[in-house]
Amino acid sequence: MQEMQEAIQFSPYTVASWIGRILWLIPALPIVAAGIIALLKQPKRKLASGLAIGSLFLSLLLSLAAFAEVLAGWASGHAVRETVNFAWLTFGTTPVELGWILDPLAAVMLVMVTFVGLLIFIYSTGYMAHDENFTRFFCFLSLFAGAMLGVVIANSLLLLFMCWELVGLTSYLLIGFWYQKPSAAAAAKKAFLTTRVGDIFFLLGIVWLFAQTGTLLFYNQGAGSMEPDALAGMLASPAGLGLSAATAIGLLIFAGAAGKSGQLPLHVWLPDAMEGPTPVSALIHAATMVAAGVYLIARVYPLMAAGVQPGGTTTALTVVTWIGASTAVFAALIAVAQNDIKRILAYSTVSQLGYMMAGLGLGGVAVGMFHLITHAFFKALLFMGAGSVIHGCHEEQDVRHMGGLRKYMPWTYGAYLVGMLALTGFPIFFSGFWSKDAILESAHHWKAGQGPFFMLVFGALLTAFYMTRQMSYVFFGEYRGHGHAHESPRVMTMPLAILAFFAVALGVLGTPAWPWFRSFLTDRPSTFGLAGFNEPGLVVLMLTSTAVVAIGYGVGWALYGNRSPQASERDALEKAIPPVWTALSNRLYVDEFYGATFIAFYYWWARVADWFDRRVWGGAVAAVMWFFGLWARFNRFLDENFVNGGFDKGCEELSVGGGLLARVQSGRVQTYLRLLALAVVVLAAILIWSSRG
Amino acid sequence: MANTLDQIFVLLKHWIVAYFPLALQPVVGILLSVVAIIATFPALFALTTVIERKGLGRMQNRIGPNRTGPFGILQPVADGIKSLTKEDIVPRSADAVVHFVAPLVLVVVVFMGFAVLPMGRNMQLVDMDAGLLYFFAIGASAELSIFMAGWSSRNKYSLLGAMRAVAQMISYEVPLLMSTVAIVMITGSLSLVKIVEAQNQYTWGLPHWYIFTPWGFAAFIMFCIAAMAETNRSPFDLPEGESELVAGYFTEYSGFKFALFFLGEYVGMFSISGLGTTLFLGGWSAPLAVLNFMPSWIWFFSKVMLSIVVMIWIRGTLPRLRQDQLMNFAWKFVLPMTLLNLFVAGLWRFMGEGILRWLVCSAILLGVYVIVGRTEMRRRKIGPRSYRYAE
Amino acid sequence: MTPLAGYLLVAALVFAIGLAGALTRRNAILVLIGIELMLNAANLNLIAFWRYSPHPEVLTGMMFAVFSIAVAAAEAAVGLGLVIALYRHAHTTDLDEINRMKG
Amino acid sequence: MNIVFWILAVITVLSGLAAVTLKNTVHCALAVTGAFAGLALLFLQLDAQFAGFAQILVYIGAVAILVVFAILLTRGSDTPAQGVFSRTWFAGLLIAAAVFTVLGWAVMNSAAALPHENAVPTVTVQQIGQALMGRYVLPLEIVALLLTAAMLGAVIVAMHEKGEPK
């Protein structure tokens, strides 16, 4: 960080408050903590967790300070956008600049990540208490936190990409944390490679952007790539297929985002990622990392929406919307037929991410981000609840072997219920309702067709359904698991309670009556007034979604409510519609499809390459080798018979000469000194002669 | 009036010098000062011997010399006469020349040290720009005379004593120098006169003596230790440890030469404590602004005598170190501490005025001293003396 | 004869004496002493030249002398250390007998 | 060419001669100390106070002591049976003489060219210190390094090897 600091002093454009200047500390602290923890010995558990939590807590404080700064600026009516940029290295003449930014988007995200992260850290101390690699776990966790925070504050696409990849790495490490489990190792690899596919496109987009605008900074006093003139330039330059460069780059970046936050073609890794420890699933695969994709899109929203007319849309946004919507429905469908408690949540996460993307595409940054924030809380809540359930049922993950936990673990039940209601969007009282409602509303008003709207409504229905199913499987009926279920320790339930509170409370910030969040992100003063409800169709819409959700609950309860089916017997829905069920429970064969196409192709290609190696190249090498062997034999023959003789003679001569010379070396110091002195005399004499003559 | 009293010796000198032709005047001036010095310090030496003998006597529940003159004041006179009239024995096997030269060299060298000490306002023989360096250079050459004495008398006790003395002086010369370098760093001059003047100023009537600063105090402690070792005073008097080697390097000396050695040793004490006074205790400056009316030289000499008395006191109090303890102490404790002190002095210089630097410097010094002292004690390197062979 | 020439002559004489000592004595330590003398003669030269140089305030010669004094100290330390080590091996410091490096 | 110079020169040269001719090694050491002292005084007489005192401090204070220590450690004080001069002393003497003649000749040749009396340079120790810390800081550092290395080296070399009786 040192040279960063200096660079900042020299950087000509630094407009930042004190917090803006030290913003880099927020990601730095956890990373440093990770570094220290990495050096700790295994038994130093207390110290390790203490370091991780402490550093993240400090980051949280700093984030709050940053948030306050932004809030103050916003309250006083001028948009806060503080950037600190500095040249990192120079290609030819154009410097590659890094930098960080403090604006409402970043501030909100910072607070969310640090806060949820902190809770999850605390939770993990309880959840991982019996793991012998406790310290390693916390090292990875806080490395992840640091990287994620880096993504959040990055003001340069390059810096963002670095942290982005770091996040990918840590996610790989954490998914494969129990690497002795083959499934975990496989899942880790899968996650890593799948996200890589997206990242390739992302990188292409970055390079292209750099080629187009000559900078990777988002905002830089008008010279950044997200600022009007750069955008105009990109809009002007065509990229074939009737796309402007802006659109193309936007799509490429979106590919990266899709990979990270499991959008449709690249969603396969996310469910498998549930092999990792549950806190990891909660932190990475529900709250933060998967949200990184959404955040990225929000960050580059100006690019996405470049050249949009009021009320209109752009190609990029359309793509985002459709992919988001279809992901939402698709994943929700699959979630219906899963039996692993965490997989259900995973698919629900995927579908919720779809919602966010759709929200971004339809209603802009505010809508998507609001759902992101609320979702982060209640999904983290759900995952940690699931973790607590698994913990309580002795590492049992199959919902069919649970049930009736309502009695055994009341705290978890309460928290889980809150999370479930929030996720399904139970009217009025839960944040999920408002955030989802905002998305639906913007979908309803979308000019380019009603398709997404209906898909999203259907998604909501499914969400309600599968959550009901899960609830009744897990908490109702009577206990079908082995052993004896027990409530989790306080250190695990406390975070649940806190998260539950926020899962409810956050909704206040986004009601149409007081759209604080939206106006905060879009730098408009927020007003309180029920006038917000008077928008045409809004109330109707709310009623519709309520009704839909109610239907979902109803059907779910009708099918699964309070009955405790044995693991052996077939699922209720399966009885109803077997073929669909099989399709769904096999995750619509996406993995199989990939296996049959891409992976098979890779196998074939590998075999071809292998054959080439063995036959063609190998043969060539062998031939060369053989030739040299022959040559060497020939040389040896020459040496032995001709060269050596000559050498021996020479050596004898030399040794005789040496003997003669050795006489001079009497080994007496004074002899040498004498020679030295003589030499001095001679030299001096010569000098004088020359100087006189 | 006070001024004339203060400058009385200077005025006297000028008055006498005025009687000589211009060409000779500088020479005469120097000669006068030299004579004054050579007259003063042996007198002090005589006085000191009495003080020492009586003081030590009291410390050991004896009365000490009390026959010659009132309270034995005239004891030194008696001693002098005795040593002058004694036969001067030179061992047959001894190396006559060296044996003869050694004491002379010692005395001369020791007296030379006084040339740069300012014994009062304008009362120094020469104000050398490199006064301190001169002082140490001269002091360094005293070692050689001791070696000569020890080696020339062809006596194993003498040789051992000389070797011990030389080794000890060499090892303690380093910390001695180092502890004074801090002063030089702060004053920015090697000239003792300048150093005294730098200390001769007062705030709220209190003097700016260097001993009243953290680093100064630390340096003073180190200086005292090193000085005592340098002058072979107990507890560092191994070279003449009566119990081990009869009288160290001057075992084979008798009569006047012995007296010369004695003189040399004490005058060495005077010069080194004079240096200490000059460097740390503000030389001839008065301890309080109000006391400035008293002549400066009184202050100087009283300070010197005071430190001499302290030395005697210590001699009466502390037991003798063992050789290895001595060396370890020098190289493993005193030297590092003086080095640290240099650092602290630099800090002091650059932290500028204010209470802060007091806190910081004292904190550093105290902390390190405590820590190092503790660890050393624990490692029994310079721990309390262990009577390994006496039990 | 200028004063500088006088100093130079003295220096040359001392140098020669040192050299003679180094060349003629058996005892290794005395050889070292001779070398020390030679070094000192060189120092005297430096100082003398500095003193009578057109710009003494530049201090070059004096600095040179000071540095060479320092170096000489190091040289003496190492040299005597070597002599002692040598003595411990060969039990003599007589250079005529120490010719193990003989070719 | 004042009288002081001549006295000092004579002292120096004589004690130098004594140092290389005396039989007893310790006497040689003491004599060489005298030579060092004479040279130091010459330095002082050349208004090079600092160098002079440094000379005394280093040579009389340290080197001479080192030498006598070395002598005593190597039992060098008792004069060897086969004379103190090496077999080839004559050649050595000749060469030394040759060196002196060449040097002296050089001096004499250039004596005319040498500068005469010039103003006494007023060099304070402070200036020297500034020079050391400023223009000559690199040499200073290097010398410091050298001294450290030399000290370690001397200790290592002179140290008793393991197992060897002390």
SSE blueprint and pairings:
The complex is a heterotetramer of chains A (693), B (391), C (103) and D (166).
Chain A: H1 2-10, E1 14-15, H2 18-21, H3 25-39, H4 45-75, E2 82-91, E3 94-102, H5 104-127, H6 134-153, H7 157-175, H8 182-213, H9 228-236, H10 245-260, H11 269-272, H12 278-287, H13 289-299, H14 301-304, H15 315-336, H16 341-363, H17 365-392, H18 405-408, H19 410-424, H20 431-444, H21 451-475, H22 490-505, H23 516-521, H24 538-560, H25 572-576, H26 578-585, H27 590-662, H28 669-692
Antiparallel strand pairs in A: 1-2, 2-3
Helix pairs in contact in A: 3-4, 3-6, 4-5, 4-6, 5-6, 5-12, 5-17, 5-22, 6-7, 7-8, 8-10, 10-13, 10-15, 12-17, 13-16, 13-17, 15-16, 15-21, 16-17, 16-20, 16-21, 17-19, 17-20, 17-22, 19-21, 19-22, 20-21, 20-24, 21-24
Chain B: H1 2-6, H2 8-17, H3 25-59, H4 75-85, H5 96-112, H6 131-152, H7 156-187, H8 192-199, E1 202-203, E2 206-207, H9 214-230, H10 255-280, H11 296-317, H12 323-351, H13 355-378
Antiparallel strand pairs in B: 1-2
Chain C: H1 3-24, H2 28-51, H3 60-90
Helix pairs in contact in C: 1-2, 2-3
Largest interface, Cβ cutoff 8 Å = C-D, 73 and 87 residues
Order of helices and strands of chain C: HHH
Strand order across the biggest sheet of chain B? 1-2
| Amount of helix of chain B | 55-70%
Total beta-strand segments of chain C = 0
The average pLDDT score of chain B comes to 83
Radius of gyration of chain C: 17 Å
H/E element sequence of chain B? HHHHHHHHEEHHHHH
Explained architecture:
The complex is a heterotetramer of chains A (693), B (391), C (103) and D (166). Chain A is mainly α. Chain A has 28 helices and three strands. In chain A, strands 1-2-3 form a three-stranded antiparallel β-sheet. Chain B has one domain (79-377). Chain B has a two-stranded antiparallel sheet. The radius of gyration of chain C is 17 Å and the shape is elongated. The longest helix of chain C is centred in the C-terminal third of the chain and has 31 residues, at 60-90. Chains in contact: A-C, A-D, B-D, C-D.
